[in-house]
Design a protein that fits this description.
There is one protein chain. By secondary structure, this protein is of the alpha/beta class. 44% of the residues lie in helices and 20% in strands. The protein has helices at 2-11, 37-50, 70-77, 93-98, 105-118, 135-148, 165-171, 180-196, 215-221, 248-256, 269-281, 289-296, 298-313, 334-341; strands at residues 21-27, 52-63, 83-89, 122-128, 152-157, 200-203, 206-208, 234-236, 240-244, 262-266, 287-288, 317-320, 323-326. The strands form three sheets. The protein has a seven-stranded mixed sheet with strand order 1-2-3-4-5-7-6, with helices on both faces. Strands 8-9-10 form a three-stranded antiparallel sheet, with no helix packed on it.
C-alpha cells in the first residue's frame, strides 16, 4: 500500500504547475497513525522529492486517542508532522459508549495531556446533538477542551448513518431519536462560548484561535485545488472532481501497472456555481458577488440575489459591500440556505 501511494504521488505530479507550492499535507481518512513514523516519513519524502513544498507547510495527521501512546507522540514530534487532529468526540464515557468509540473518557484526557506537552498545533473533534445530552454535559465537554488549551476545535452534529448500530438502537427504543432542536441549542452554546474565549468561527464546523485556522480546511472551503491520494480519496481542480477506487487490492494492482485507479467528473458551470455557494456560505468570508458575476455571468448573479432576498428579509443572510454571508442567526441553517440558492440545469 505504501508503495502504491508513493507511485500515485509521482504520477500525479503533472497535475500541478511547476511553480505551484504545496502548503498543506493532510494524513486523514481513517487512522493514519496505524503507520509507523518511518512509513509516514517515506510518503513525505516522496512528496518533497516531486513537488515544491512551502517552508511553513502544515503537515497534519489524524489520530484517535487510543492510538496516541506516549511513545507514538514522542516519535511524531521528531518527524516533519507539526499538527495533530485528534478524534476525541466526547470527554463523557456515556457518549463514547453510545457512539461505539474504541477509546474511553480517561484515554481521551490522558492522550491530550501527553499531546499538549509536545505539540502546539492541535485540533480536536467534538460531537454535539447526542440524544439525552444535557446542556450541563455539553458545556462540560466544551470546558474540558478549553482547559487543555487546544487552539482549534472542530464540532459536528451527530448524524444517523445507515448500516451502523445507531439507527438500530433508535428503532428498538434504546436511544432517543436525534433531535434537531437540541442540536441547534448545543450549537448556539458552542458558538457563544468559544467566541468569548477568542476563537474565530471561520467555518460552520471549525473554530480556531488566530493563526491556528486549518490550512487544509481553509483551502477546501475556499474552493482551492487539492489532490487526494489513496483508496477512496477525492480530488478537485476547479473544473473537475475525481475519486479513486475504493477497493484496496484493485488500487494497488492498478498502480503496479503505472495507471491511476481514478474516475473523473467534469463540472458544468452550474456545478461550479453551486459548489462555490455551498462552500462559501459555510465560511466567515462568505461568497463574492463580484466573483459570481465574473466567473459565472450576470444571470447567475441576478439569480443568487433574487433567491437570497427572502433570507435577507428573515435576517439569515446579509450583504456587506461585495460579500454575501450568513448572519449569526443563520449559521446553523447555512447548508439549507445554500441549497435554496442552488441553480439546476442552467447549462
Amino acid at each position: 500500500m505504501i508503495a502504491a501511494i508513493c507511485s500515485e504521488i509521482k504520477i500525479r505530479r503533472s497535475e500541478i504547475m511547476d511553480n505551484e507550492i504545496i502548503k498543506t499535507i493532510y494524513f486523514g481518512g481513517g487512522t493514519p497513525t496505524v503507520l509507523s513514523v518511518d512509513e509516514l516519513q517515506k510518503i513525505i519524502d516522496v512528496i518533497s522529492e516531486h513537488y515544491l513544498i512551502s517552508q511553513d507547510v502544515e503537515i497534519t495527521v489524524e489520530a484517535n486517542p487510543d492510538d496516541l501512546t506516549s511513545a507514538k507522540i514522542k516519535s511524531l514530534v521528531k518527524s516533519p508532522i507539526n499538527r495533530l487532529s485528534i478524534g476525541i468526540q466526547s470527554f463523557c464515557q456515556e457518549d463514547l459508549q453510545m457512539m461505539n468509540r474504541a477509546h474511553n473518557d480517561q484515554e481521551a484526557m490522558d492522550c491530550l495531556s501527553l499531546a499538549t506537552r509536545e505539540f502546539d498545533n492541535i485540533s480536536i473533534d467534538l460531537i454535539y446533538g447526542i440524544p439525552n445530552m444535557s446542556m450541563k454535559r455539553w458545556k462540560n465537554n466544551i470546558q474540558q477542551a478549553l482547559d487543555f488549551g487546544v487552539p482549534h476545535i472542530s464540532c459536528y452534529a451527530l448524524t444517523v448513518e445507515p448500516n451502523t448500530a445507531l439507527p438500530k438502537l433508535i428503532e428498538k427504543g434504546e436511544i432517543d431519536p436525534v433531535d434537531d432542536t437540541l442540536a441547534q441549542q448545543h450549537f448556539e452554546i458552542l458558538v457563544e462560548t468559544l467566541e468569548k474565549e477568542g476563537f474565530v468561527h471561520y467555518e460552520l464546523s471549525n473554530f480556531g484561535k488566530p493563526g491556528y485556522f486549518s490550512k487544509n480546511n481553509t483551502a477546501y472551503w475556499q474552493g482551492k485545488q487539492y489532490i487526494g491520494i489513496g483508496p477512496s480519496a477525492h480530488s478537485y481542480n476547479g473544473t473537475q472532481r475525481s475519486w479513486n477506487i475504493n477497493n484496496n487490492a484493485m488500487y494497488i494492482k492498478t498502480l503496479q501497472h503505472n495507471k491511476l485507479p481514478i474516475e473523473i467528473e467534469d463540472l458544468t458551470t452550474t456545478d461550479q456555481y453551486n459548489e462555490y455557494v455551498m462552500t462559501g456560505l459555510r465560511t466567515v468570508w462568505g461568497i463574492s458577488l463580484q466573483k459570481i458575476e465574473q466567473e459565472f455571468g450576470d444571470t447567475y448573479k441576478a439569480y443568487v440575489l433574487k433567491q437570497a432576498q427572502k433570507h435577507i428579509e428573515a435576517q439569515l443572510l446579509f450583504i456587506d459591500n461585495d460579500s454575501m454571508s450568513v448572519t449569526k442567526k443563520g449559521k446553523f441553517l447555512s447548508d439549507g440556505i445554500a441549497s435554496d440558492l442552488f441553480l439546476v440545469n442552467l447549462d
